[in-house]
Amino acid sequence: MIIPRLLFRAITRVSPRNLYNAWRLWFVPGFAALRKFRERQATGQFFPPFFFIALTDACNLQCRGCWITSQGKPRQLSLEDVTTFINSAKRQGNRFYILLGGEPFLYKDLITLLQTHRDCYFQIITNGVLISPESVREIARAGNATLLISVDGFQPANDFRRGEGVFEQIIHAMKWLKEHRVLFGIATTLTSTNWEEVLSHEFIRWADSQGAIYLWYYIYRPVGPTPTPDLALNREQIAAVRRRLLALRKESPIILIDTYWDAAGRAVCPAAAGLGYHIGPAGDIELCPPLSFATATIRDNNGDLSQTIQHNSLLRDFRPFVHARTRGCVILEHPQDLIQFLREHDARDTSGRDAYLELGQLQPRPSHHLPEAEIPEDTWLYRWLKKNLFFGLAAYG
């Protein structure tokens, strides 16, 4: 019953043109990008099938535990830099890009970017507050983007972390997206205070009623200038999250995506697997969104992205460094080892703060790595999806 239920919602909620473009520009090229990624791996080459692009570090909110802060004047990528970057990545077969911030709706060229690259598909991670009827119409007209709106529970839980009145503004944004039949989902960060609520039947039914097609879960990581460690999940809660997800998937009316486990239930780190890197708002090629360190930029080698990534020791050595310690998140489990690794590679702090100091203050914590307690996917649809279409795209929560 899963497939008919999901298909019915997609067909009745998303315009035919938007749905066709999602298939033509997101899913089909995604399969191809993964195939090329595996072929490159077999020959000792590597280039990720997906990228996260932080268009700006400006944001209109100050969420508890967020690691994005602009110091002084906000940084942002020029449209020219983004276009050069995407054109270089397209030569390697990449067609799917995740646009982040800060808040991407503060990037004045956002719609122009979608219109310029109509042969690509974009996922826009947003807090939803700056979405307007006009921007929704433009996105629907472009037809090559899905929005992922951050919601951390019902109004009390969401506004506790994101600010008073934010939940109500998000409701309006989703109403406009639903009216214009734009494909969108909800991103939810799992914390110690909200995980049971957002993994409840009630919350999933609410997300479905707003018109969302998918619900994307992330586990909170206490990093940044105000890490708020009391929001982090403990090992028992992480295991409970995994069990709850598997149970909910059997009856959820919308797609439930996690960013952490493969089909066999083993932990996944996208950066350690070489699956996706993060482009910072100054053009730095960073390991992942919460790890703001780099030794290269998108402008190196005259913009030849393949050449830059292939010969970057920080990116190359990160994989064996992590795999020697965990399949999960090395930031959480081994912060002191991580500092040493970054210093050995002369990695620049690209955060605009003092990220080395922040890492040094972290205490080791459990991540989604559950050795000898892995729980495999138990529905054929999600097993197939996780084997054939990579879902582990982390984003700002």
Automatic annotation (TrEMBL):
Pfam families from the UniProt entry: Radical_SAM
Residue stretches making up the Radical SAM core domain: 45-255
UniProt keyword annotation of Kinase present: no
Alphabetized UniProt keyword annotations: Iron, Iron-sulfur, Metal-binding, S-adenosyl-L-methionine
Cofactor: [4Fe-4S] cluster
A GO MF term: catalytic activity
UniProt signal peptide: none
Protein name (database record): Radical SAM domain protein
